[in-house]
Write a structure and sequence with these properties.
The complex is a heterodimer of chains A (387) and B (206). Chain A is α+β, with helices and mostly antiparallel strands and 387 residues long. Chain A has helices at 11-16, 18-23, 46-61, 78-84, 87-102, 116-124, 134-139, 149-157, 163-168, 171-178, 182-189, 202-221, 230-246, 262-265; strands spanning 29-34, 66-69, 72-76, 109-114, 252-256, 266-270, 296-308, 326-331, 334-341, 345-346, 359-365, 370-376, 379-385. Chain A has four domains: 11-139, Alpha-Beta Plaits; 146-195, no CATH class; 202-270, no CATH class; 296-385, no CATH class. In chain A, strand 2 (66-69) and strand 3 (72-76) form a beta hairpin. In chain A, helix 3 runs antiparallel to helix 5. Chain B is 24% helix and 31% strand. Chain B has five helices and eleven strands; from the N terminus they run αβββαβαβαβαβββββ. Chain B has helices at 4-7, 40-53, 68-73, 88-98, 115-128, and strands spanning 8-9, 24-25, 29-33, 58-61, 81-84, 104-108, 131-136, 147-159, 164-177, 185-190, 199-200. The chains are: A alpha+beta (387), B alpha/beta (206). At the A-B interface, helix 13, strand 5, strand 6 and strand 7 of A face helix 2, helix 3, strand 5, helix 4 and strand 8 of B.
Chain lengths: 387, 206
């Protein structure tokens, strides 16, 4: 059984209050699960594999479960809590299944709170933060919990040791006193956001995604060459011949995945040898890129510069507002005037998003070429061409 | 008597006008020319959509950065398509092999291909009764195609200055058969439409 500090209210009562929670301040009730044994990658990628198995298992419980980094999984708690008859029950169920998968000796930490950051912290403390108490829970946390050593050092220098005190600072003064990066942390401390840079590990998630793609491949070939006519067998034989001659990645099959990102939505996978019929099909993903999709999606994002009339690089703030009116794009070694452009739309919002990409934007160049840009960590890159 | 499917590959209704007799003749090489980023890729995927949906095998050869989602929106049945991201000599060699068992090859060429190689591939397509669709920037990428489709005057709708989204692209398509079997045809297409698929513009005919 998980060692859980008792929730202030009985589990059934908590589940009953679920519908009221949704109306309140807005942060979603989240369940976080931590497997500290799997935090670090090992040379044989054994941890990665075990974690991928755990993720698959958790998704059977809740299809919306997402990995934040190696060893950390989160999902919205309301649905499962209703299904299993209370939050405590969900944790018990989850704990039981994880022990079955990972073994008795594995450390498993579970917690529930409002918002992503609070849920992760609650899991580390193995706590269910009762409904409506997340603000109080956050307030007593030391500022070091934010995982931003420079910021917490500056806060401590001025006598701010707890998030509660930090939250009481006026929002307007934050950037000036602690820098732009402190704004996200301040919003988290005030319970307005659950997203904090550093919660997600994009690199580990990319490795996890490629592992998942590999695993799904076996079922994928499936749809593929599923037929058994003479033509099908002939095409398969030739495809394999090309692969034998030029390597596994010379012959790829395509598959659509759920996702918002053009590069992860459509993926190419090497054709492998398995072969059994299975239907394909993937519905549209809410919030995905608007149609039409770019006909060319760059495998390796290409760095570009988006410039203002004065020739200065356009920056986005945390709300994806542009620092100036964009006027030209520097790409393919030359500068092109913009004819039209969309606003930059943020794609970071929403806890489910895997990558730390901040925003996307469509541009129409004077040559008539339309492109898709991504903005991440202060830099623009070319992601797709609407060829 | 040869059955229809032994002589033709099906073509989507919206694109039928581009082909003499409304079908794509097996054994042909079709060249799509479009300036960089002006819809050549979209048109190629749209051309392959009907064959793939009818169960014909298609291969996209040479595309380094195919937009899978866009290809699907344009109607391609992804379970009937393989992608072969090779270049240069390897591309030509792989294309030669694929012609033995695939009904349609989309050859995406950034640069021209040696004229001798192109002729060899075209001859093989004729022999195997397959169709090669070449996508390139102009006529120089492929020496002699049976049908040349040109995409021109592409312009996007829907995007403003700081507002809107790319909704649809209008483009003029023009086709001419090598042997002059038929007068050239030209009309305006949505390539793609706001749904991602291909559509004939209402005021299309000229």
């Amino acid at each position: 059984m998980p060692r859980l500090r008792a929730a202030a209210t009985p589990a059934s009562a908590v589940a009953g209050q679920g519908k009221f929670a949704a109306r309140g301040e807005g942060l979603q009730r989240m369940l976080a699960l931590r497997c500290p044994d799997l935090f670090e990658e090992d040379s044989e990628a054994e941890h990665l594999r075990r974690f991928a198995e755990a993720l698959t298992m958790v998704r059977e419980l809740c299809p919306f479960a997402e990995a934040l980094r190696l060893g950390v999984i989160v999902f919205p708690a309301r649905g499962p809590a209703r299904f299993f008859g209370g939050e405590q029950r969900v944790l018990q169920e989850l704990h039981q299944r994880l022990v079955g998968l990972l073994g008795e000796e594995s450390a498993i930490q579970l917690g529930i709170a409002d918002g992503l950051f609070a849920a992760c912290t609650a899991a580390a403390m193995q706590e269910i933060v009762p409904l409506g108490k997340t603000q109080a829970f956050l307030a007593q946390l030391p500022v070091a919990c934010l995982g931003q050593p420079k910021l917490s050092a500056s806060l401590e220098r001025v006598g701010i040791y707890r998030l509660g005190l930090f939250a009481r600072l006026p929002e307007a003064s934050i950037t000036e006193r602690f820098g732009r990066d402190a704004v996200a942390a301040h919003r988290v401390a005030r319970g307005q956001s659950g997203e904090l840079p550093g919660l997600r590990d994009a690199k580990a998630l990319a490795r996890l995604a490629s592992l998942e793609a590999e695993r799904s491949l076996v079922s994928h070939q499936a749809d593929f060459f599923g037929g058994s006519s003479v033509q099908d067998r002939r095409a398969l034989a030739i495809a394999r011949g090309v692969q034998d001659r030029f390597g596994p990645r010379s012959l790829m099959v395509a598959r659509l995945f759920a996702g918002r990102d053009p590069s992860t939505r459509g993926r190419l996978l090497p054709l492998a040898s398995a072969n059994s019929p299975r239907s394909s099909g993937e519905g549209p993903w809410p919030g995905s890129l608007p149609l039409p999709s770019p006909a060319r999606v760059l495998r390796r994002a290409q760095a570009v510069s988006l410039l203002s009339t004065e020739g200065e690089e356009i920056q986005l703030d945390r709300h994806a507002t542009m620092s100036a009116r964009p006027a030209s794009l520097e790409a393919w070694g030359r500068r092109q005037v913009l004819v039209a452009w969309s606003d930059a739309w943020p794609v970071e919002e929403g806890w489910w998003h895997r990558s730390r990409r901040l925003a996307r934007m469509q541009l129409l160049l004077e040559s008539g070429v339309a492109v898709l840009l991504a903005y991440s960590e202060g830099r623009w890159s070319l992601e797709g061409i609407y060829d | 008597m040869v059955s229809a499917s032994a002589r033709w590959l099906p073509v989507a209704e919206e694109l039928a006008e581009l082909f003499p007799e409304g079908h794509c003749q097996r054994g042909w090489t079709v060249l799509i020319t479009a300036a960089f980023g002006q819809g050549g890729h979209s048109l190629a995927y749209a051309l392959a959509s009907e064959p793939s949906r009818c169960g014909h095998w298609c291969a996209v050869v040479g595309a380094e950065d195919p937009g899978i989602a866009a290809a699907a929106e344009l109607g391609l049945d992804l379970t009937r398509v393989v992608f072969v991201p090779l270049a240069g000599e390897s591309l030509a060699e792989a294309a030669g092999s694929l012609l033995d068992g695939f009904d349609m090859l989309l050859l995406v060429l950034d640069r021209g291909i040696k004229a001798s190689t192109a002729r060899r591939l075209a001859a093989r397509a004729r022999d195997r009764r397959a169709v090669i669709v070449v996508v390139g920037k102009d006529n120089s990428v492929w020496p002699e195609a049976d049908l040349t489709i040109t995409v021109k005057d592409a312009h996007w709708e829907g995007l403003g200055q700081g507002s809107g989204r790319l909704r649809a692209r209008r483009a003029r398509v023009h086709s001419a058969a090598r042997r002059g079997e038929r007068r050239p045809s030209a009309y305006a297409l949505h390539l793609p439409s706001h749904e991602g698929s291909v559509g004939v513009c209402d005021d299309a005919k000229t």
